[in-house]
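Lab notebook page, bench 4
Experiment: in silico fold of construct C2
Operator: M.H.
Input chain length: 497 residues
Purpose: comparison with the prior construct
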Amino acid sequence: MMKIRHILSICLVLVATSLSKDGSEETEYFAVFMEGKKVGHAIQNRVVADGKVTTSEKVRITISRANIPITIEMTETSTETADGKPLGFELVQKLAAMTMKLTGIINEQGIVNITTSSMGVEQKSTMQWPSGAVMAEGLRLLTLKKGLKEGSMYNAKIFSSGILQALDAQIHIGPKQDIDLLGRVVALTEVKTTFSMSGTGEIVSTSYVDDDLRVQKNITPIAGIQVEMMACAKEFALGENDVLELIDKMFIESPEPLDDVHSAKSISYLLSPIGETNGLTIPANDNQKIKRLKDNKIMVTVEPVTAPAGARFPYKGKDKIILEATKSNRFLQSDYKEIINLARRASGETKDAAEAAKRIEEFVAKYMENKGLSVGYATAAEVAASKQGDCSEFAVLTAAMCRAVGIPAQIVVGIAYVKNFAGLQDRFGGHAWIQAYIGGESGKWIGLDAAFKSAGLDGYGAGHIALATSNGEPAEFLNLATTLGRFKIDKVIIKNK
């Protein structure tokens, strides 16, 4: 299932557009609604001191998946000069019992020194600051400069520490209109912001701001879920929440029951967009072919490939994308001692890359002890220690273990067919698995699904539709957030072996 942490990463960008008047300190409170139910709150704080502006945005929500409550909290803090130059940022994520902290310091040359810590493990890395990107204060100053003239339009690059990337934003000023704020009707100006990244779809956020450019209401559809944030009194924001069951929001109905999908040679799916759309962004890969049709429809054909025989590991090629899939990062800590030990135990003495990858898949399927839905989104190191989680925890551990022995591996997110899950019948549910690269220059990416193996469902098969691939970083899941909930499956064509 797609993780709510990815939704919160995007929500933090949206809260950052809330603007306050100049002053030493100001705090604003928001109630957070999903599908019309209050699920939590957001708090924005802006402090001006010693020539620096510190802006923090905190979002805390509680949702339910299959009647299992999960509380997720994310706090993003940016530090900038008075004229909006970025100096540093911090992100603290509290997901169930797990906490991750990320800090970034930006030097004069635009190099960002990043430190990530989780479960006592500290990782350091660097990145180049995206040219022209702004954080909260820079965006505030830009918006003050542009004003609220109806019909005006401008662009911005808005940096999010949650995904360590800048989102391209096109901002369009609409008319002033009467808006209901929890029973209080106020004349506010509509501001539509279209967020996008290369290779992904778009997210259109609609905000309503007062004459001081402070956001009073924001509505954003993400992954088929209507997320709404509304300025309100502190007491209401921090008050009692409703219970929102999300499990059915992450599933798409199959047009017909599918029997024994894992024995199929290939399955073709006719996808039709729902509502207004500029077209779906569905990736092609070694296992999945895409054909675009009329009316923005897409035919996706999934035909799992067979791994090349006799391929060795570790990978010794020079392909940049494949090499990137061998590296350790803050979510796939393949250089972590415990993960290296697990990978060696799993792969054993084999020198065959396909056999080693299959052994790792089987090992993770048996290694996980608690297969519940209570984990928000854990790193591979956290999963190795806790032995718990759902599909994405299976995936991050499998990918990290493959990388630990030199087998390139990526996380794949999309939807997969299940006959029965939590009382839902014949559905495609949000899911995560991995693809491992086997071979040299003529090698193939093969699908592996330890979560399905653990559930006795034969692992990866033609019942999986990929919507995005990732090295574990949240930014790479954005296509799932912009695609899921925006299409239906009209037709299924099965070819048996």
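Observations: The mean pLDDT is 88. The chain has two domains: 4-245, 261-496.
Next step: discuss at group meeting.
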